[in-house]
Here is the input.
Amino acid sequence: MTNPSSSTSSAQRASDGRASVATRIAGKFGAANVIADEASLAAYEVDGMTPAAAVKVGSVAEIAELLGFAATEKLAVIPCGGRTKLGIGSPPARYDVALDVSQMNRVLAYEPRDLTLGVEPGIRFAALSETLAAEKQFLPLAPPFAERATIGGILAADSASPWRHSYGGPRDFTLGMEFVTGYGAAAKSGGRVVKNVSGYDLHKLLIGSLGTLAIITRANFKTFPQPPAQKTFVASFDGPAAAMEFCRAVGRSALEPRLVEVSSPEAAKLMGAGTGTPLALPQACWNAVIAAAGHERVVERHARELSALAAHGKAREFAALEDSQGNALLGQVREFPALVLAADAGAAIFRVAALPTVMAALAERLAAVAAGAQMDHATVLRPHGLVYFAVMNSRDGGADAAPVARAAQDVFRAAAEAGAKARLEWAPVELKRAVNVWGEPRPDFALMRRVKQIFDPENILSPGRFAGGI
Here is the structure.
């Protein structure tokens, strides 16, 4: 039988410990830069855990000092900025301090003629996009939650961009980074221009590491010129197989679209409900969304040839959208995870790396999993190698994680049998504690653990959030 007084004393000791951490940090870094009241700390919650303090840093020196202090005191630190990606990853093993880089939000260097850019991690993607647009340039990151997402978080989460089809992922156009390791040492990798000296691109390890290796303090990018013209097209099909065959036909052609994406009828419904601009997106079909860009003649050629390919593929409909509709649709394509979570905060969203040849069959298998569990679902196929599959548990209010956990295991199994690799990118904490969000153990886990030991020997950076509890 539990002793009530013992439970009370344990809770009191925990509270006293948190207060002590907050007091020591405030004494060392200044009370003006430290948040310690419970109401404000709720904004820094990660999977039901709140830190004892949040520290707003403004320089590399302050980050290095804080991490050195945390390493000595064995305090677990989770970096954050816009706080849009804190729901990704496993629940942290420990969480003492939130390291808030939102005040480090400057453009450090920008050479439009050289197509190079250097920024601090706390700059918001939306604000940076405006700066680049003034020079008719852009970064092909396109993260969900784009208004609040920061560059540091986008890189740390390797946020999936629909522009990856033609521009690649962040690793392809991130030229270099500066960062602070878990023991407070400032370091850098890569450079600030497109042509760099040879060497190891260690900064690429930080992309997708969820802040478990180092704190990014500067990121350097190659920028891209905005195309002079763009048009969005939608080809609608009865099922995923026909839609994916159309996408393969586009890939075999001489066309070079900027974006290719296939959405299920349920995903189309979410996208249609998520904008004030009426979308010409048939909601009973699997819709292939194609964005073409370049000079007017290039766009016109895409219009002609895509129409012919759609007709050959027996599309039910083919439409070239007006600019306002096209831009609205591309925004919804980018925001798919945000749309799912807005519709159901308890949704589980899987990110599956898969070959294009298995995507149609995998989509049908995943739909069967959801139907068997009596759950709503939505699917997005990105033929460059990514599937988003969302399971929504709103029918029973999402109170019981067990049915979703069983469905999640079926999703992992279906992906593995298709030769794909699934991870549960967004999920309620109850589900995260019931399943391994990273799926089956990776064969390179021993190497990953060695890398973690080198970058963060005291295991203070986001402990437990990455695969294998790293």
About this structure: The chain has three domains: 21-226+442-470, 229-334, 337-432. The mean pLDDT is 91. Residues 21-226+442-470 form a domain with the Uridine Diphospho-n-acetylenolpyruvylglucosamine Reductase; domain 3 fold (CATH 3.30.465.10).
